[in-house]
Inverse folding.
């Protein structure tokens, strides 16, 4: 790996944190003004990377099945095209729900459930936040007997095991926390999460793409060369380099930052 070249690229695109760990040991770190390894940073859509592992944990706990239909929880989703939508499709963004629900536009569970489909389920990949809110509505309903919210279940079932503490979460007007965005996590904590995911064979289904987009799994992007990553607006990233047992956290503030350009620099001969 060429860490200095990767860092130089990140510096040109508003670097705020770069942390590289192999087997939990720090290989490299650099921070922009006002940041360090322990200052929480907005993940934006990097938050989506939490929910594939949560879904698999819930499946293991008997709460749900990835290929069950939303209509099994909400009967209104048994009508028309909605009748074919599965939880896996929600997480893979192939449910047929149109673009929207990002940033400040994340809808409540109720409003997400009321959205009509734009496409037949399983035929189109459309990036957005609404499918995650529909998944959240399903999970919240299934967790009622345990008196847990989806975010409490995330913390207890996944993040505690990964030794991860979220700094803060955004809260919607409904009083709930969003699923597709909203987490603020420090670089060191997100690196812990990356190592946990990398070392958990049971989470392999997170890294299987759909037929319509082989480069997107359950909340994770797949670059086709063995690197998987969580991605958030402005250049937020958590890269998993499985063959090198390496996790890379990158925070920034640039709309021009490109994951493929950073990875080319990172993987170039040093």
């Amino acid at each position: 790996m060429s860490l200095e070249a990767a860092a130089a690229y990140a510096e040109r695109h508003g670097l705020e944190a770069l942390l590289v760990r192999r087997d939990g040991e720090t290989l490299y770190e650099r921070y922009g003004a006002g940041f360090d390894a322990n200052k929480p940073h907005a993940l934006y859509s990097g938050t989506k990377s939490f929910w594939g592992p949560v879904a698999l944990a819930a499946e293991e706990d008997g709460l749900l099945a990835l290929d069950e239909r939303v209509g099994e929880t909400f009967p209104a989703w048994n009508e028309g095209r909605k009748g074919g939508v599965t939880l896996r499709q929600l997480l893979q963004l192939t449910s047929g729900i149109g673009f929207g629900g990002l940033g400040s536009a994340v809808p409540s569970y109720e409003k997400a459930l009321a959205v009509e489909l734009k496409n037949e389920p399983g035929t189109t990949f459309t990036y957005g936040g609404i499918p995650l809110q529909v998944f959240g509505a399903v999970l919240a309903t299934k967790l009622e007997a345990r008196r847990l919210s989806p975010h409490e279940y995330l913390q207890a079932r996944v993040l505690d095991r990964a030794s991860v503490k979220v700094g803060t979460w955004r809260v919607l007007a409904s009083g709930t926390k969003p699923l597709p965005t909203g987490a603020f996590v420090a670089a060191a904590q997100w690196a812990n999460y990356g190592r946990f995911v990398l070392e958990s064979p049971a989470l392999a289904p997170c890294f299987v793409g759909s037929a319509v987009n082989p480069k997107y799994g359950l909340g994770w992007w797949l670059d086709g060369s063995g690197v998987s990553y969580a991605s958030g607006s402005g250049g937020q990233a958590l890269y998993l380099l499985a063959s090198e047992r390496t996790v890379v956290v990158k925070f920034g503030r640039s709309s021009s930052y490109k994951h493929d350009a950073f990875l080319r620099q990172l993987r170039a001969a040093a």
In short: The chain has a mean pLDDT of 97. The chain has one domain: 3-267. The longest strand covers residues 15-22. Residues 102 and 243 are 33 Å apart (CA to CA).
